[in-house]
């Protein structure tokens, strides 16, 4: 075959078809069939009629929303202060904030667990609080980085113009800086919200007995119940799709990867 | 007042992020098995970490897995990016869309669906390590693709044509002209792949052989058990990784600083 630059893409295209598209097709197949391979809606009706699974869905939505909100409330001021400061060493300082991303998350959660155990005595008393603390601890850098990157690139003269035209500082922030930093905020939210619905290991490690959507997949996996597990995965995929359409994450890669590129 | 707040908020957040790791680091040098108790200094945890067979093999295994899947992912992702960049718009945007799926998807779903496809449908044994490696390559390759594409877009397209006009064969032109131009994208994609693989828990749990552990799966299992020897040895591991990360960041910063100085001097000259 004649050498052409286009053909170089074939291995990756085949790879994507085999290991990205095919697994999703199989997931659909398993979600809508029963043990004998017949078409069935039972898994779907199971999910939406069982108070336990529905409760888990709402609990994980609540937990994810709380975690995202807490991360945002902490990350925005930090990112704003760092991005607008006049320090020369800004890149080094933001590096210090994202460095924990490179330490294995399970080891960091172990560290957090020891501290929380020392403070609370028994971790079982405050499952929701501990989950929020654990996830905030884990995901905070992913929220700080995209917001920082957006604000630091903002044109400072826009705020100055607003001030010159008579806006006070608060108004200039609310009407100029905040709207312009929305892409960073949205990208940060998408980095935190989905993991907060699915990363059940954080809860497990903090001795939590509460369930989120990810934990359901984990328990169906342990029980080799592929059909119900696929249905849960499909519901999660649906949520992810809706979420992606709502946020249209152009900066996705920037957020998850920024750390290594710094 | 304003100045105090501007300093206080970031400092408090830094404390929140680092105090747990630092306290663990201090206690990793003591005999205590619980934080809060003050015991004598010892290096026992570090000795355990480097001598105990299961700890050593899981560290080596994690690193080998990360290196192996990062190499494969970089190869696949780079070739994919080059191919897609020079393909018709329809094909390249289709590839970009599918490439985005593993990036956006929850790792639990990726791991679970790969497990069903490879293990349940195709019947590939987890003991062959094939599902595990494929899983990690699936996790990493899209990020390599995303790191290389912008470099291709920045590249001056006439360079490749010039090489051909000067008599280079397409293969040579690609290796000698295109690859050096996109090398920085490949390197950042590769390092990204390493960090993603090292940090992964979910894909590994769903696809790994029962006897094999990565750092993440080992630590998660260890926190369920009550073996204090392992528990405190993991404190030592956390400290070692923390120090390594600091060293890497320092070296990268120094390099970047040196490069910047060099550029400035060249600009002056």
What would you say this structure looks like, in words?
The complex is a heterodimer of chains A (262) and B (269). Chain A is mainly alpha-helical and 262 residues long. Chain A has a single domain (50-261), classed as MetI-like fold. Helix content of chain A is 77%, strand content 0%. In chain A, helix 5 (105-120) crosses helix 6 (127-153) and helix 7 (156-164) runs antiparallel to helix 8. The two termini of chain A are 41 Å apart. Mean pLDDT of chain A is 86; it is low at 250-262. By secondary structure, chain B is mostly helical. The longest helix of chain B is centred in the C-terminal third of the chain and has 41 residues, at 228-268. The model of chain B has no long low-confidence stretch (mean pLDDT 90). Chain B has 2 domains: 58-225, MetI-like (MetI-like fold), CATH 1.10.3720.10; 229-269. Chain B has helices spanning 2-27, 44-51, 53-85, 89-104, 107-121, 130-154, 158-165, 170-199, 202-207, 215-224, 228-268. The chains are: A mainly alpha (262), B mainly alpha (269). The interface between A and B is large, with 85 and 90 residues.
């Amino acid at each position: 075959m004649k050498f052409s630059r286009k053909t170089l893409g074939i291995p990756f295209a085949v790879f994507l078809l085999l290991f990205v598209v095919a697994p999703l097709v199989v997931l659909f197949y398993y979600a809508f069939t029963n043990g004998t391979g017949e078409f069935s809606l039972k898994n779907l009706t199971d999910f939406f009629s069982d108070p336990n699974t529905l409760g888990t869905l709402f609990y994980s939505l609540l937990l994810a929303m709380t975690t995202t909100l807490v991360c945002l409330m902490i990350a925005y001021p930090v990112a704003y202060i760092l991005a607008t400061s006049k320090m020369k060493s800004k890149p080094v300082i933001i590096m210090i904030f994202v460095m924990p991303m490179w330490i294995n998350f399970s080891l960091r959660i172990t560290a957090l667990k020891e501290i929380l155990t020392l403070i609370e005595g028994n971790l079982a008393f405050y499952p929701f609080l501990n989950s929020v603390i654990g996830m905030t601890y884990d995901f905070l850098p992913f929220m700080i980085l995209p917001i920082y990157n957006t604000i630091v690139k903002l044109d400072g003269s826009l705020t100055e113009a607003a001030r010159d035209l008579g806006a006070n500082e608060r108004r200039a922030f609310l009407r100029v800086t905040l709207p312009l930093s929305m892409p960073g905020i949205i990208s940060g939210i998408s980095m935190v919200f989905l993991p907060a619905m699915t990363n059940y290991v954080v809860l497990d490690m903090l001795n939590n007995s509460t369930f989120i959507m990810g934990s359901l997949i984990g328990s169906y996996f342990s029980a080799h119940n592929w059909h119900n597990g696929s249905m849960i995965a499909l519901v999660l995929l649906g949520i992810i799709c809706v979420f992606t359409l709502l946020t249209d994450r152009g900066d996705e890669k920037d957020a998850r990867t920024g750390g290594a590129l710094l | 007042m304003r100045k105090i707040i501007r300093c206080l908020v970031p400092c408090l957040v830094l404390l929140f992020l680092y105090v747990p790791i630092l306290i663990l680091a201090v206690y990793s040098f003591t005999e205590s098995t619980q934080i809060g108790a003050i015991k004598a200094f010892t290096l026992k945890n570090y000795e355990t970490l480097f001598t105990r067979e299961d700890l050593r093999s899981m560290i080596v295994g994690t690193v080998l897995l990360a290196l192996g899947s990062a190499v494969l992912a970089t190869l696949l992702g780079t070739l994919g990016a080059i191919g897609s960049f020079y393909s018709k718009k329809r094909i390249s945007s289709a590839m970009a869309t599918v490439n985005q799926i593993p990036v956006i998807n929850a790792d639990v779903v990726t791991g679970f669906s790969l497990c069903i496809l490879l293990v349940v449908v195709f019947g590939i044994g987890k003991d062959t390590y094939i599902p595990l490696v494929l899983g990690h390559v699936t996790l990493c390759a899209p990020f390599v693709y995303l790191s290389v594409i912008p470099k291709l877009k920045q590249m001056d397209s006439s360079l490749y044509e010039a090489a051909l006009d000067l008599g280079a064969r397409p293969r040579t032109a690609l290796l000698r002209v295109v690859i050096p131009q996109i090398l920085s994208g490949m390197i950042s994609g590769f390092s990204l792949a390493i960090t993603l693989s090292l940090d992964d828990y979910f894909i590994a749990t769903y696809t790994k052989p029962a006897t094999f552990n990565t750092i993440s799966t080992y630590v998660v299992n260890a926190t369920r058990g009550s073996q204090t020897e392992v528990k405190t040895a993991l404190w030592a591991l956390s400290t070692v990784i923390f120090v390594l990360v600091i060293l890497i960041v320092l070296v990268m910063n120094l390099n970047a600083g040196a490069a910047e100085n060099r550029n400035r001097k060249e600009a002056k000259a």
